[in-house]
Amino acid sequence: MPLIRYAFATLCFASAAIAQASDWQYAGYSKIGQDEYFLFYDAEGVQRPSTTVARYWLKAMTRASVDLYSTKHAKVVVEKTAQKVAVGYVPSFYKLAPIRAQYASPDALLDAVIEISGYEVVANERDALVKNKLYFELDCRERKSKLLEMITYDTKGNLLRKGGSAQNRYEFIPPDSNGEWQSQLICALR
Hints:
Layout: H1 2-19, E1 24-32, E2 35-42, E3 53-62, H2 63-72, H3 74-86, H4 97-100, H5 106-123, E4 132-139, E5 144-153, E6 159-164, E7 171-172, H6 178-188
């Protein structure tokens, strides 16, 4: 009987650990040279060292790695995406007024919601390749941010570099930018 209790306790602990995993939500798109990146923030990992300051992790994934993962695991990605959308899920990014305003019709917005929900599914899979993870600090009142740490991975997921920002100073967030949209998403979380 003690073995059964131990197995049950281990299973409950493992389930709790899985439930505590990051929740990577869409935070924008960036193109650097020929490379396209989808950005995701960890909604579960946002920290609030003070009422006006927030810290969060941002994950950058190349379009190529998202597309490759989606193709290799199409059935699972489609099923998980359908489950999210079927219950009315809308990525927080698409609740932002400036983002919603970019879509001419409700159908175009719904198409984007479905597509981005699929990207979020991929971003939350442990074996999907990540290019960078960045740790930011936001001053929500002053509308400034600074990069605290950056981790870079190679095309196989191996660590290339890890370190803090050399500048480590706040910079103002430009309007109509990924930084502005991320600050709206992050600063709204309590």
